[in-house]
Every structure is written in structure tokens, then in C-alpha cells.
Design goal:
Layout: H1 2-22, H2 26-32, H3 35-42, H4 48-51, H5 53-76, H6 81-102, H7 105-113, H8 119-154, H9 159-192, H10 198-235, H11 240-269, H12 275-285, H13 295-348, H14 358-382, H15 388-405, H16 407-422, E1 430-433, E2 436-443, E3 447-452, E4 457-461, H17 462-466, E5 470-472, E6 478-480, E7 483-487, H18 493-506, E8 517-523, E9 528-533, E10 535-537, H19 541-558, H20 578-582
Antiparallel strand pairs: 1-2, 1-5, 2-3, 3-4, 6-10, 7-9, 8-9
Helix pairs in contact: 1-3, 1-5, 1-8, 5-6, 6-9, 8-9, 9-10, 9-11, 10-11, 10-12, 11-12, 12-13, 13-14, 18-19
Length: 583
């Protein structure tokens, strides 16, 4: 009873699979019988208790797919052009589903064989699998013919129709890649149930070799077309037809590259040599993952690169070498001119001849020499055929973007220009700016470097300086030295005043004009204070301050005049406690 059940299952599967294979194309249906006969013999299902639940579900799925495919093919006869495309896609999808379901048969066979021998079922399954591969190859040939037919229309099509044609070619190419993948999967299923695959592998290898060879040639052709179209667009960039053709060519290149990659992946699984094609694919797509990690592919790419470099040097090397020498000569000449301009400006803008700040002087010299060198670079670049107009326009756009990104730096630059114009200080001046007191060591249009009296270097942005109070200590030639000296309340005031005046008159660095000032200023808590205000040259300020202070202390000591220090008198009052009185 069990053997009879498996026999019925085998017969049903054989009839159903043969009917499915016959439905791959219309010519096959015509050879094997009418669609009605196929439908009549292939849609019978056995109950689950006879073939098992899994087998019953598989049969039901395959039969549904066969029925849908037959219905779509019937509707295809009288359908419109747009509906035909939709129906054709449905038919292809159903065919793929049928093959995938057929590939589940080995799993069912092996599962049943675990329970006992299934000689008849195995024989029929192997027979069905032996007939699937030729049908797949026939379908591959039909798809290749259809793609060639569509490509033939492309040469006569209008530019606006090329995008549609390329999309159609892409759809059929994707179907073709799926058929190759199904062929490989079919070989694996045959090996799963122990069938011989030597002839099937040889046939698939032949088809794949033909395909990758054709795709390789199409890639080269697409690259040539794209190169020609890009050259034409440089001369006539407003031509819309060229733009459309270029987009279509790039789409064709991408489709062929993707199809080549899919075919090479299958060839790798079949242990075939793909190094040369992988090298070409990597060079076209710039996709490192396509094979750069393969040592042989990497070596091939390096070899191709050296060949291209060698060919370029042989063809264009001498011409560009001459231009390189010309460019070097132009740069050397303008470098020499830049030095002459710099030396001339330094002589003309000598501080003894022109009343300019050091910042203004350096800025004029630097910008003028840089402008000359920039003009030389532009002349040198023109030797390579670079148009200066677009380059300057590009620099303008780049300058706007950089300026927007560097707003703070531009603020410092603007502040530096204001310092350059109004000259609140110069190099060598002693200033108090931005909370730093020191000598101006270096200036530019962005920042100012200050060296403090304890030899620390501070670099301040000009925006911080210009937006705050600027104190220039050495801006004037002479300065007043302000000092305060105190004497005791018991000391002789006229005598002390006379001594202070005498000290100022005897100091060689104190100026006679403006006249020094010595006045009793305040009556402090502990002293009587005199203000002493001599005038001196700005460079002698600290010498006068330190010398006068030292001399006043020594003379006051000699004359018995005291310099009091702050003091307080503390009076203590002690009261006897109540306890002490009692005692």
C-alpha cells in the first residue's frame, strides 16, 4: 500500500513538472500539447493522507502557479502594449516561482527515503530534473534574442526614447541574471540527490563564458561612448540631446557592470578563472569590494595602471615636460620680480622717509609682492590651457564660502585694518590693551603680539583690542612722573618742601620745561603727604622714578625727617569685677 502511494505521488509530480517546463515559452507549449491539456493533466491533487501534508502543500502551490501562468499567457494575446509589459512580468514571476517550488522536490525525496527505498520516485525526480536545465538554457537564449532586438531599436530611437529603452534592457537583463542563477541552483539540487552534473556544468560554464565576454566588450564600448559624449558636451554644453544620450550611456554602463558582477560571482562558485574580468570590473566601477582584496586582481590592476602611465608618458610626456619647464621658468622669473618689488617698496616706505606705521608698511609690502606672485601663478597655469575666467570665478565663490565660515577671522581682519588706518600704537610701543600690559613685539592684520615686562609673549586678536580701551604709554615723547612722599606731623614742612625741590632740580634727567611740581597735598591719618611731579622723556620715566625715590629717602634720613608708617594708638580700660571688690 505504501509503495503504491509513493508511486502515485511520483507519477503526479512527473506529470506536473513536465507540464510546468512546457510552459516556459509558447513554442514549448506548442510542441508538448495545448494549454488545456497541460492544465487538465497537471492540476490533480492527492489528499494529504496519501502524500503527506508538506507534499500536498507543494503540489497545491505549483498547480496554482501553473494555472496563473496559463491565465496570464491567455490574456497576453489580446492585451495592449502597456498591459503586455505587466502580464509579461507576472509570467516571469510565476515561472521563477515554479522553478523554486520544483527545487523543493529533492528535500521531499530525501525525507521519504529516510523511511524506506523510493526507487521509482527517485527515477522520476531525476528524469524531471534532467529536463529542467535544457528548458532554462532555451529560455536564456530567448531572453538574449529579446535583448538584442531591443538594442537594435536603440540605434534608431530618438534621444528622449533612449531612457525608456535602457530601462527595458535593464529589466530583461535582470531576468537573464536570475535565469543564470536558477541554472546554478539547479545544478546544486541535482548534486543534492546524487545526480551527475558534469555535462550540465560544462554547458553552464560555456554560457557564462560567452556572457562575460560579451559584457566585457559592452563595458569597453560604453566607456568609449561616454568619453566621446563628454568631449562633445565640452564644446556644446547646451545641447540637451547630448545630455540625454550621456545619461542613457551611463545607465547602460551601470547595468552591464552589475550583470557582469553577477555572472562573475557564479563563475567563482564554479571555480572558474575570473581575474581579468574582475580587474576590468574594478577599474570601471571603482568598487574595491569587487576584487581588489584578491591578490591576482590587485596585481592585474597595478599592471594595467603602469601600462596606462607608460602609454601616457610615451604619447603626451614630452609635450607636458616642455610645458613644465616653461611653468618653472615663469615662476622663477616672477619670484625674482617679487623680490625686486619687495626691496623697492621697503626702500620707498622707509620709516625715515614716510610717516607710516610698521603694520601699514608691512601690509603694503606683503600684499604687493603677493599680488605679483599670484599674477605669475595665473600666467603659469594658463600654459596648461586652464581658463583664468572660470578659475577666478571659482575662487570668488570659494572666498565667499570661506569668509562665511571664518567670520571671526574676518572680524579680526577688519579690526586690523582700523588699527592700520588710525595707528593707535606701533611696533615698539608700550601699551595696555585687552588686559595685557607690554611692548608691541609684532603686528599683522589679524593679531598683535605683546611682550610683557617679565618677558611673556601674548598674542591678542585685533578684534579684542579694537573693541576695548587702548592705552599707549609711549605714544608721547615726554611723560610726567607722579610720586607721593609723606613726612611726620612734627617735621618741618618748608624744609621738607625745599629738599624735594632741590632733588628734582639736581637730577639730570628731569626736564626744566614743563616745570616740576612739589606741593603739600593731603593731611593723612599718619602723615603729611607731598605730591612730587617732575617731567621726563618717555624713555627715562622709570630711571627718574627710581632715582628720585632713592634720593628722597637718603636725604630725609640725613636731615632727620621721618617718613612715618601707618599706626594706631590703642587705649585699654580695665574695670574691677564685683567679686574683686568684695574681696
Amino acid at each position: 500500500m505504501c509503495a503504491r502511494r509513493y508511486y502515485f505521488l511520483a507519477i503526479l509530480i512527473m506529470i506536473m513538472v513536465v507540464a510546468t517546463i512546457c510552459d516556459f515559452n509558447k513554442s514549448a507549449i506548442a510542441q508538448k500539447g495545448t494549454e488545456a491539456e497541460v492544465q487538465k493533466s497537471g492540476l490533480k491533487e492527492l489528499p494529504p493522507e496519501m502524500v503527506g501534508e508538506q507534499a500536498n502543500e507543494l503540489l497545491h502551490s505549483i498547480n496554482d502557479a501553473i494555472a496563473s501562468r496559463l491565465r496570464y499567457e491567455e490574456e497576453l494575446k489580446g492585451a495592449s502594449k502597456e498591459d503586455r509589459q505587466v502580464l509579461q512580468l507576472q509570467i516571469n514571476r510565476m515561472g521563477e516561482q515554479i522553478i523554486n517550488d520544483i527545487h523543493l522536490l529533492p528535500d521531499i525525496l530525501l525525507k521519504l527515503e529516510k523511511k524506506g527505498s523510493q526507487a521509482k520516485l527517485r527515477k522520476e525526480v531525476e528524469r524531471v530534473f534532467g529536463e529542467v536545465s535544457p528548458r532554462l538554457w532555451h529560455h536564456i537564449e530567448q531572453l538574449n534574442k529579446e535583448i538584442d532586438r531591443i538594442r537594435a531599436k536603440r540605434s534608431e530611437a530618438k534621444p528622449e526614447e533612449r531612457a525608456v529603452i535602457e530601462a527595458e534592457i535593464g529589466r530583461y537583463t535582470l531576468l537573464l541574471d536570475k535565469d543564470y542563477k536558477l541554472s546554478f541552483d539547479h545544478i546544486q539540487k541535482m548534486e543534492q540527490i546524487g545526480m551527475g552534473t558534469q555535462e550540465t556544468r560544462a554547458r553552464l560554464t560555456e554560457l557564462l563564458n560567452r556572457r562575460v565576454d560579451k559584457l566585457s566588450g559592452r563595458l569597453e564600448l560604453s566607456l568609449v561612448r561616454i568619453d566621446d559624449l563628454e568631449k562633445q558636451l565640452k564644446t556644446t554644453p547646451e545641447d540637451p540631446d547630448l545630455t540625454i544620450r550621456l545619461i542613457a550611456s551611463k545607465t547602460n554602463l551601470a547595468n552591464n557592470a552589475a550583470s557582469l558582477k553577477a555572472s562573475l560571482d557564479l563563475m567563482d562558485k564554479l571555480k572558474l578563472d575570473t581575474d581579468d574580468y574582475r580587474t576590468q570590473l574594478v577599474s570601471v566601477t571603482r568598487d574595491i569590494s569587487s576584487g581588489l582584496l584578491d591578490t591576482s586582481v590587485a596585481i592585474g590592476m597595478v599592471g594595467q595602471t603602469f601600462k596606462k602611465i607608460k602609454a601616457w608618458f610615451a604619447h603626451s610626456g614630452p609635450k607636458y615636460l616642455v610645458k613644465l619647464f616653461i611653468i618653472i621658468g615663469i615662476l622663477v622669473i616672477f619670484r625674482f620680480i617679487t623680490r625686486i618689488v619687495r626691496a623697492g617698496l621697503e626702500k620707498v616706505l622707509d620709516p625715515s622717509k614716510v610717516n607710516l606705521s610698521e603694520l601699514a608698511r608691512r601690509t603694503i609690502i606683503s600684499w604687493s609682492s603677493n599680488l605679483v606672485m599670484f599674477f605669475g601663478i595665473m600666467v603659469a597655469l594658463s600654459q596648461f590651457g586652464i581658463s583664468l575666467g572660470p578659475l577666478l570665478a571659482g575662487l570668488g565663490v570659494a572666498g565667499f564660502i570661506v569668509g562665511f565660515a571664518l567670520q571671526d577671522t574676518l572680524g579680526n581682519f577688519a579690526a586690523g585694518m582700523m588699527i592700520l588706518i588710525y595707528r593707535p600704537y606701533d611696533v615698539g610701543d608700550l601699551v595696555d590693551v585687552g588686559g595685557v600690559f607690554g611692548t608691541v613685539e609684532k603686528m599683522n592684520v589679524v593679531s598683535t603680539s605683546l611682550l610683557t615686562v617679565d618677558n611673556q609673549l601674548f598674542v591678542l586678536p585685533n578684534s579684542k583690542i579694537w573693541g576695548d580701551v587702548i592705552k599707549n604709554v609711549t605714544a608721547q615723547d615726554i611723560r610726567r612722573v607722579d610720586m607721593v612722599f609723606g613726612i611726620s606731623y612734627s617735621d618741618d614742612i618748608p624744609k621738607s618742601e625745599s629738599i624735594l625741590e632741590e632733588i628734582l632740580k639736581s637730577h639730570e634727567l628731569v626736564l626744566d620745561s614743563p616745570e616740576p611740581v612739589v606741593r603739600l597735598h593731603t593731611l593723612g591719618a599718619s602723615s603729611v603727604d607731598f605730591v612730587v611731579r617732575p617731567w621726563a622723556k618717555a624713555d627715562d620715566y622709570w630711571d627718574v622714578y627710581w632715582d628720585v625715590t632713592r634720593t628722597v629717602k637718603m636725604r630725609f634720613d640725613e636731615e632727620g625727617i621721618s617718613i612715618p608708617f601707618p599706626q594706631q594708638d590703642v587705649h585699654l580700660y580695665r574695670e574691677k569685677s564685683l567679686t574683686s571688690e568684695t574681696e
